[in-house]
Amino acid sequence: MRLCLPAVVVRVIAALSLAILICAIPAMAQDPIVINGDFEQLDENGKAVGWENSRVEQLPDGNHVMVVPFTWSFNQAVPVEPGMRYLVSMDVKRHRGTSAARMTASVRDADDAKLASIDIRYPLTSDDWETARGLLVAPEGADHARLYVLTLDKDKESDFYCDNVSFTPLGKVEGVSGRVWQVPDPLYEELLGDEPPGLVTEGAMVWSHMLYIKQLRDIAARMGRRFSEEETFAHLAEHKLHPIRVPDNPLYAAKDLTTAIYPRHTAPDARLMLHPDSFDFYLNGVRDTLTEHPGQIWAVFAQDEAEEHALREVITLAKEPPEDYPYLDQIEQEIRDQYGSGEFGLPQGEGPDEPFRWIAYRRWVNARLRERHERLGELVQEIAPELRLISTDPMGQLSPYEFSLQADLFDIFTHQFLPRSNPSRCQLGLFTKMVVDLTGKEFWPCVHVENYAYPTTPDETRELYSQVWRNGGSGFHLYIPDTANAGKLKGDTRLTEWGSPPRYRAILEIMDRAANQNQLKFPADEGCRVFFSNYSHMAFANASSAGAEVEACYMLLGPQARSWFTIIDEHRLADPLPGASPSVIYLPYARIVDADTRDRLTAFVREGGTLIVADPEAFSHDVTGDATDAERTKLVGAELGQRLGGTQILTVTPNELLPGIDEPLQLMTLSTANRLTLAPGTEVLGTYDDGSPAITLRQLGEGRVIYFALQPFSAAATAVDEWQQIFTSLQRGLGMTTDLDIWRFQFPPFETVELPAPEGVCLTGNHVQWREETQHLVANADASGTYSLSPAPDLAPDDGGVAGISFADGDLTDRANWPELEKTEAAGYKLYVEPLTQWVDRWEAQGEVTVSFDFAAPRQVLRARLFVSGEVPPTVLEGSADGTEWVKLGEAPALSAGDDVLDFTVNSTSTASLRYARLRFGPRAAEPMTLCEVEIWGAEE
Predict the structure, then answer these.
(1) Phi-psi category of 882—alpha, beta or left, where left has phi over 0 and alpha has psi -120 to 50?
(2) pLDDT higher than 90, residue 53
(3) Residue 26 burial class via C-beta count within 10 angstroms: exposed 0-12, middle 13-18, buried 19 and up
(4) What is the DSSP secondary-structure string of 892-933?
(5) Dihedrals φ, ψ of 817, to 5°?
(6) CA distance 704 to 610
């Protein structure tokens, strides 16, 4: 255990406000929530007590630390209290290879269902011990949290040292609940402008899960739900949903819809998608598809996760280079010559120059993809210029893909987003604003509101899409399978439309509203900029190693201070889009900055701008690998010194840049703090508890530089009132408007989402409704009755027999058992172990069929609802009081369902109380008849 907390913290805690008032760190030693967080308690096998699958090492100084690789098995469950805010913390130190440490806290209820989470990712750029922190609020219903510690990289040769894991209660909070950001004062119509909607009127791009016909027919028969191939295509056409198709899929021919083609991207023998042969293969495939399918295509979708695939493929191939593959040597040479300053080639795994190798490699990959997409645009312009070009689809992390250099390549940009189940984050809003600001183009993110990270509710879906719109997004890219359950043996509901109809209806309602509303009125550009350093973020094997700082800056300036700003990067600094001249530039994270960018930022300050350097180690290196910390010292007027262990108390002094802060404001530091040595003339705006400088201001030319010796933009800071207060005040002091209404935008409450309550009760006890991928038995009577079949099904017999089949056991009333059904493999699109014949009754014989129901007591029968396949002759519903004398209650005409699963209802005209009912099916012409599920409905008693 390393001692991290100076005694002064104990003395000053009492002075802190309620947000951090009972950060009673001394109490941790008396009654720790985390068991053995310092790893000093070992069992007889040398494992850390309280931790699963631990690996402990004793350092030369006697301290025991955890050696953490990539594994989700190293974890511990801790108790939590609903409404309590917790400081999650761990000390980390680089060991072997890995670029980032990671700690995830997953808050769960008593049934272990996930309610909320926090994912702390901390770049490991130093051989010193550092502290990674985050703040988490346990929502209503929380029972415990499970702490996972692991590397971000999956490389088996990578690990890091971890010590002093803690989970500290900070006191109860109000107003933070749920799993997504809450807007307490939403606006809608007031924020709509005069400009009509954009390309959203053309519809949306959708992955083709609704067109896995074989699998959907099979599950529909088991679940007792309707599925029609013809109706599915009609639904897609009605809502202008353009399926993503591979070029040679014949399914779409002669259908009343247009598609987004998804070109095949790697030539059969090329091995890499960035190989010149693959470029030709890719473009020739597009040419053939556009030529062979005129009128059937709406857009060309460049590729899903192209950047990630390209980056991974080359590295994987380079680890075991094949014989007679000279292109790998060519790649190495191109990277070294074009982007590696003649020195840095492909990444090698570890070493002091590894960050610069990653920068050079990523720049090469980005440039190669831009080359491919330039050629793609030229090809489409030649053959079908009316088509839309849609960008690649990066994975759900903040990625340095130089979007600004792609602005001219695509009509629509897209990007994935994984909901984070954390109400203190608006990461989707950040993704949206970043891509929109850097490209100036339409942005249609793939929001993954399906059951992906968790089963999203309709209102959560509404807020997530509202984040897209309030940050400048403008369209939809839908991915709607049951993703979370697809990889399980049981519970895969296949589609959002089936696993959670209210969520699917919510998506459709938002889409319809967005396509028929004017664009939003966005605030005037007041010159505030947030700088995203592509090169600094490129320095890691995993791009999501960094990014928390940019997200925290976005949160504090945007959703929390409600001020307006524009995100820029190296290229937009040099080549800005139309707008006001910048007056303020924030640098949340900028360790590696090229010389041209440093010169432009310096000139910006000298000409009167305000530069806010929030990264203490900003400008440490050039992309050439040269150390440039001396340049930082000259720019900020302070030399960065040694790191300070543990937590410091920061005092911010009132000044003209912080209107409304009239008394010194004290805060706990939530990131690594550093000593400073000031140059003459540098002012002090904030101090540590020993009086030494922590925040400084330097006048340079006509402008000024504000410099932080600690990182203020941390995920933890966004959940602390005082940090919010500082940056809201600072924005005002810099002349920016706060409390702007754009951050209040939210789509209005739904009108069509909830399903109407059924009339009566289901006498057979098998009526279900699905919500958030959970089956609910709704409006069912005590299903103690039975049914009988005459004759017995000859193609698919009933598992319950022929006569006296209980409603609980029979194939016609068993859909409630579906969640226990197993697939052949724990993977998507797989069929089931049990044959369909165990879930349906099927007759090949062409004579009359009768299904009789005994309710065990007299009931008024309202209707029968049937789910069927094949040929169904005219159907008669009859009732009887004694099982002998039958009266006709209603009838339905013949129905030909073919291979689909259709449903129909036979309504009763009788108000009599009847113990028995039966369905009589007349003779058929040829095709078998399949009864999948039958509901008999009666009046409530």
Answers:
(1) alpha
(2) no
(3) exposed
(4) E--EEEEEEEEEEEEE-----EEEEEEEEE---SSS-EEEEE
(5) -85, -5
(6) 5
Exposed / middle / buried, residue 329 (Cβ in 10 Å: 0-12, 13-18, 19+): exposed
Q: What is the DSSP string of 493-555?
A: --BHHHH-HHHHHHHHHHHHHHHTSPPB-PPP--SEEEE--HHHHHTSSSGGGS-HHHHHHHH
The residue among 700, 640, 627, 709 whose CA lies nearest residue 671 is 709
Spatial distance between the Cα atoms of 576 and 239, rounded to a whole number of angstroms: 37
| DSSP at 666 | E
Residue type for position 34: V
Tell me if the pTM is above 0.85. Answer: yes
Which residue's structure tokens are 């493999």? 825
- Residue-by-residue DSSP string for 117-162: EEEEEEE---SS-EEEEEEEE--TT--EEEEEEEESS--TT-EEEE
Among 238-242, 289-293, 471-475, the least confident range: 289-293
* Pair 531, 568: CB distance under 8 Å: yes
HSE-up of residue 489 (Cα within 13 Å, Cβ side)? 7
> 205-238 burial, b for 16+ CB within 10 Å, e for fewer?
bbbbbbbbeebbbbbbbbbbbbbbbeebbeebee
**Cβ 656 vs Cβ 732: under 8 Å:** no
List pLDDT tens digits, range 895-927: 999 999 999 999 999 999 999 999 999 998 889
Question: What pLDDT does residue 658 have?
Answer: 96
Euclidean distance between CA atoms 468 and 447, whole angstroms? 9
CA nearest neighbour of 390 among 267, 477, 314: 477
Q: Which residue has the tokens 């932080």?
A: 708
Q: Taking the CB of residue 846, how many other CB atoms lie within 10 A of it?
A: 16
Give me the phi and psi of 628, to 5 degrees please: -130, 25
CB-count exposure of residue 556 (10 Å: 0-12, 13-18, 19+)? buried
Q: Quick one: angle between helices 327-334 and 306-319, nearest 10?
A: 110
Contacts of 303 (CB under 8 A, 6+ apart): 262, 263, 265, 273, 309, 392, 393
For residue 13, pLDDT over 80 is answered with no
581 φ, ψ (degrees, to nearest 5): -70, 140
| Helix ranges, 257-409 (H) | 276-292, 306-319, 327-334, 354-383
Distance (Å, whole) CA 335 – CA 622: 17
Ranked by mean pLDDT, which of 93-97, 98-102, 343-347 comes out on top?
343-347
Q: Is 52 helix (H, G, I), strand (E, B) or coil?
A: strand
> pLDDT tens across 348-372, in order?
988 889 999 999 999 999 999 999 9
CA dist 188 and 282 (Å) reads 44
H-helix or E-strand spanning residue 65: strand 64-68
pLDDT score recorded for residue 882: 95
* Rounded Cα–Cα distance for residues 889 and 892 (Å): 11
Q: Angle formed by the axes of helices 501-515 and 458-470, to 10°?
A: 30
How confident is the model over 763-817, as pLDDT tens digits?
999 999 999 999 999 999 987 899 999 999 999 999 999 999 999 999 999 999 9
- At residue 610, φ and ψ (nearest 5 deg) are -110, 120
Exposure of 569 by Cβ count < 10 A (0-12 exposed, 13-18 middle, 19+ buried)? buried
Q: Are strands 768-771 and 774-777 parallel, antiparallel or unpaired?
A: antiparallel
Backbone angles phi, psi at 95, to 5 degrees: -125, -75
